[in-house]
Each structure stands twice: as structure tokens, then as C-alpha cells.
Amino acid sequence: MTRRKAGAPSPRPPPGELDDAAFFRFGHAVAQGGDVVPPRGPQAMAGGDDAATLARFISLAVPRLSAPDATAQRLLAEHGSLAGVFAAAGHGGAGGGQWPDALRVMLLVAHEARRRVQEAALRAQRLLASGPSLHAYLHTVMAHERVEQIRVLYVDAEQYLLEDVLMGQGTVDHAPVYPREVVRRGLELEAAGLILVHNHPSGNPAPSDSDIVMTRRVIAAAAVFDMTVLDHVIVGGGRIFSLQAEGLL
Fold first, then answer.
1. What residue spans of 128-248 are helical by DSSP H?
2. Could you report how far apart the first and last alpha carbons of the chain are, in Å?
3. Which domains, and CATH codes, for the chain?
4. Which of 141, 158, 197, 248 is least enclosed by beta carbons within 10 angstroms?
5. How far apart are CA 85 and CA 91, in angstroms?
6. By the 8 A CB rule, do 205 and 170 touch?
């Protein structure tokens, strides 16, 4: 790799493209001298801890940026939360054009590390007794997905997690579920039970009639092989709906 001589000007991006610092000036007024004016209004309401954490990521990934705090506030306002920013990075920085690769990769790595830590915590305890740990994990993996996903958490006879399997994904309001495939994977893992999970991108976690019908079909198919459906959890709008807790299982 050729090193740039000290004092030489930084190369300009090709016409129509933005360098990392220019990307972050989207949506901001630019004062004389090129300084970014910090955002006002809803941005000021973003959580301080999240903003500080995100600003640190931005500073590390894009050290040339002169206003990481203002940028962090703006991204939090655009995507609602730090988790929303992580999810947006996974979607290629949707909502603000192409993100700087360094920041996007850093956020993806941090998000995956967080998921792995939460999964490790789940494996150390019985799944149905994990409560908040399970809910936090499910929010991390699917709360900000734009289409419906179906996941199945397979457990052993003592309800310890064997595997979290992404069974399929569909559209904004539907994802296909095949009871035969759910049971087949359970037999491969020698699972004693399972928890169905899916998300509602609409934000309303209440089950539809088709959700309840699908659950009953999986229960019937699993029962043939002495597998128990312990719960069906729906994630949406920052909330969790448990069919088991609501007496709908």
C-alpha cells in the first residue's frame, strides 16, 4: 500500500460520492468554515448513555469526524434507539444513504458480540426461567427486522437451550411456517421441547388468528414425536407477547 506523504492533501472522493466525514453532514446545517451545526429538537431527547456510547463508536471508526456527539444524537433520533442504529447498520445504513464502511462494520461486530453474550447467558439457565434474559436476547436478534422472521428455540429435557434456528422469513406481515420442518430439526437435535418465536414489524405484538392456528398445528405435529411446544413468543414495538402466559397455547 502506498503511503501518502506528510502534508499532502487528502484525495477528494469521485464526483457523486461522499467521504466518511461528508456523509455525516446529511441533515445538518453547515456553518461558515464547514463546521457541522449540532441537531436540535427531538435529537436532544435521545438517551445520554446511548448517545455517549454511540459517539465513542463513531470517534473510533471515523476519527476525522469533527462532531461525533452531534452525529450520535442524530442517528439515535433517526432510528429510535441504540439497538435501532445497530439494526440500521445491518441493513446497510438504510435511511441515510451508504454508511462509512468502518462504522458499519464496527457496529455489526458490536451487535454480534452483544448477541453472543446474551445467547451464552441463556445457555447457562433454563429457558423458561430466564425471563428478562430471554426477552433481551429476542429483542436483540429480531425486534428491528423489517420482515417477519420465524425462529425456533430448541431445548433439552431440562429446558436448556440446544439451538436457536432461523426457520424462515417472509414479508412485512407474513412468514411461512412448516410444522414438518420444525419437527424434523427438533428430531435431529434430539430436542424435548421448543419455543416458537416470531416478530411483528408493524409493532403490535398481539397474535393474529393465523398465528394461533399455526401454533396449534405445530403443537399437534410435535406431539406425535413427544416434543412439547413450551411457548410461542411474539416480538413487536419493544414489547413481548407470550401465548403461554396469556392462556392461548
1. 132-142, 179-189, 209-223
2. 61
3. 20-112 (no CATH), 146-242 (3.40.140.10)
4. 158
5. 10
6. no
C-alpha triplet 30, 87, 98: angle, nearest 5°: 45
- Residues 56-68: pLDDT tens digits? 878 887 888 778 8
Pick the residue with more confidence: 86 or 133?
A: 133
Find, among 84, 88, 86, the residue nearest to 106 by Cα. Answer: 86
Q: What's the one-letter identity of residue 222? A: A
What one-letter code names the amino acid at 104? Answer: R
The x, y and z cell numbers of residue 79, run together, are 432510528
The sign of the torsion formed by the CA atoms of 139, 142, 147, 150 equals negative
Set of cell numbers at residue 110: 458490536
What pLDDT is recorded for position 130? 65
